[in-house]
From TrEMBL:
One family name in Pfam for this protein: CheW
Taxonomic lineage of the native organism: Bacteria, Pseudomonadati, Myxococcota, Myxococcia, Myxococcales
SMART domains given in the database record: CheW
Listed InterPro entries: CheW, CheW-like_dom_sf, CheW-lke_dom
Designated name of the protein: Chemotaxis protein CheW
GO biological process terms on file: chemotaxis; signal transduction
All copies of domain CheW-like, residue ranges: 1-132
Length: 141
C-alpha cells in the first residue's frame, strides 16, 4: 500500500495515500475555534472550503515547539481535516507494518522504508483523537 511520508521535526511518519487529498503550504493565520483543545490550530479556508487544522505534534503529545510548514489535507468519511507537519517527503510503498512499541489511538504501527523507521498513523484513530480533542477542550468559566 502506498503512503505519504512526512516529518514532524526529525521523526518520520506515514499516512495511507488514499486518505490524503492534497498537501498545501501552512497558512500564516487560522480562525480560532472556541472550546477546542490545545492541538487545534483553528480553521482555514482552502478553495472556498472551511477546514479545521490540527497540530499533529501536539495531537500525538510530542515534546517541543511546533514547527509546521505544510498541511496534509485528509479526506475523511465525515469531514476534511488538515494536519500541520514539518515537511512532506514523498510517497513510498509500505508492505509490512509491525506493532508500535507504544501503541496509541492514532498510531497503527512502525515500518521500515529503506534505512528509515517510520511511524504509520491510523487515519480513523487520528480522526477519533481530533474528535476527542474538540470534546475535551478547555472549559469556559
Amino acid at each position: 500500500m502506498r503512503h505519504v511520508l512526512f516529518r514532524l521535526e526529525k521523526d518520520r511518519y506515514a499516512l495511507p495515500l488514499d486518505a490524503v487529498r492534497e498537501v498545501v503550504v501552512a497558512p500564516d493565520r487560522y480562525s480560532l475555534v472556541p472550546h477546542a483543545g490545545p492541538a487545534v490550530c483553528g480553521v482555514t479556508t482552502l478553495r472556498g472550503r472551511v477546514v479545521p487544522v490540527v497540530d499533529l505534534k501536539k495531537l500525538l503529545s510530542l515534546e517541543g515547539p511546533s514547527a509546521g510548514a505544510k498541511v496534509v489535507l485528509l479526506e475523511l468519511s465525515r469531514r476534511e481535516l488538515g494536519l500541520l507537519v514539518t515537511e512532506v517527503e514523498g510517497i513510498e510503498a509500505i508492505e509490512k507494518v509491525s506493532p508500535a512499541p507504544r501503541p496509541s489511538r492514532a498510531v497503527k504501527g512502525v515500518a521500515r522504508v529503506g534505512p528509515l523507521t517510520v511511524t504509520v498513523l491510523d487515519v480513523e484513530g487520528v480522526d477519533d483523537a481530533v474528535t476527542h480533542s474538540f470534546a475535551t477542550g478547555p472549559s469556559v468559566r
